[in-house]
Amino acid sequence: MKKKLRHKTLFFFFDILKRKDVITMVCATIKPGVDCFFMNKKGCQFNGGSCHPVVEQCNGCQKAKEFPAGTYCLIFPDPAIKWRSGSCNMATHLSKAGNSPAQGKINPLKASKRGAR
Question: Taking CA 22 as the corner, what is the angle to CA 47 and CA 52, rounded to the nearest 5 degrees?
């Protein structure tokens, strides 16, 4: 009895996945074929009704892609906002500054304990 119930729930779950009234959010304005959070039945709901082109700081980034209308970011609809407060957190062409011991002060007591190991 439990196995039949389990199969029914699995089929019900897969039936929900196959529903045809689910609308995929694929951009139809600037970046055709790319999944977009701002797309709905009425079109693009971002400011101005479309994404903004990349800024010059984005040159060399793997997230920037060329489309027929220009070069646009695949992650952010307005890349200039991400660069306004410093560097973009998704930029692939910038190296991340790591925590190296030469940059900050080292506690001499901890350093002597590390050297003893």
Answer: 20
Element (H, E) at 2: helix 2-17
How many angstroms separate the CA atoms of 63 and 74, rounded? 6
Cβ–Cβ under 8 Å, residues 58 and 88: yes
Closest CA to 82 of 60, 59, 62, 54: 54
pLDDT higher than threshold 80 for residue 97: no
**Ramachandran sector of residue 64 (left: φ over 0; alpha: ψ -120 to 50; beta: rest):** beta
Angle formed at CA 30 by CA 80 and CA 44, multiple of 5 degrees: 85
pTM > 0.90: yes or no: no
Q: Which helix (H) or strand (E) holds 115?
A: helix 108-116
Enclosing H/E stretch for 67: strand 64-67
Q: Distance between CA 98 and CA 85 in Å, rounded?
A: 20
